[in-house]
C-alpha cells in the first residue's frame, strides 16, 4: 500500500467559484503585492538555530553512571553535560 497522497487540483470552474466566494467575503483580505514582498519568509520549522549547537554522538558509559543521572529525573542529560563541563573547568583537559 502506498502512503503517497494524490493532490486533486480544482477545475477552472471550481477555481472561479472559489475566487468569487473570496471576493464576496467582506472579511477576506488580499495582501497587496508590495506588502507581500516585504513579508519575511519563514525558514525551517521548529526551534531557532543555536549559536553553539549541540553535537549528536554515540558514547558508552557504565550503567551505574547512567542510572544515577537518570534517577534524578527529567533533564538528566543536561545535568550530565553540566557535570562534564564542570570537570573540564577543574582539570583543563
Please give a handful of descriptors for the protein shown.
single chain, 93 residues, mainly alpha, 4 helices, 46% helix, 0% strand
Quick overview:
The chain is an all-alpha fold and 93 residues long.
Tell me what the structure shows:
This protein is mostly helical. The chain has one domain (12-91). Helix content is 46%, strand content 0%. It is built from four helices and no strands. It starts with 11 loop residues before the first helix and ends with a helix. The model has no long low-confidence stretch (mean pLDDT 88).
Task: Give the SSE map.
Layout: H1 12-24, H2 33-38, H3 63-70, H4 76-91
Q: Which secondary-structure class do the elements indicate?
A: mainly alpha
Please describe the biggest sheet, giving its number of strands, its sense, and whether it closes into a barrel: none
Uncertain residue ranges: none
How much is the radius of gyration in Å? 27 Å
Instruction: State which percent range the strand residues make up.
Output: under 5%
Average pLDDT over all residues: 88
Number of strands: 0
What gap, in angstroms, lies between the N and C termini?
54 Å
What is the count of helical runs? 4
What is the helix content?
A: 40-55%
Helix-strand pattern: HHHH
What best-fitting shape do the alpha-carbon axes yield? elongated
Number of domain units: 1
Amino acid at each position: 500500500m502506498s502512503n503517497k497522497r494524490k493532490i486533486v487540483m480544482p477545475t477552472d470552474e471550481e477555481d472561479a467559484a472559489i475566487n468569487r466566494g473570496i471576493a464576496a467575503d467582506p472579511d477576506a483580505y488580499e495582501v497587496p503585492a508590495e506588502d507581500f514582498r516585504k513579508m519575511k519568509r519563514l525558514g525551517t520549522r521548529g526551534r531557532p538555530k543555536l549559536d553553539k549547537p549541540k553535537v549528536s554522538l554515540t558514547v558508552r558509559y557504565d550503567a551505574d553512571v547512567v542510572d544515577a543521572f537518570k534517577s534524578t529525573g527529567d533533564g538528566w542529560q543536561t545535568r550530565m553535560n553540566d557535570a562534564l563541563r564542570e570537570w573540564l573547568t577543574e582539570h583543563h583537559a
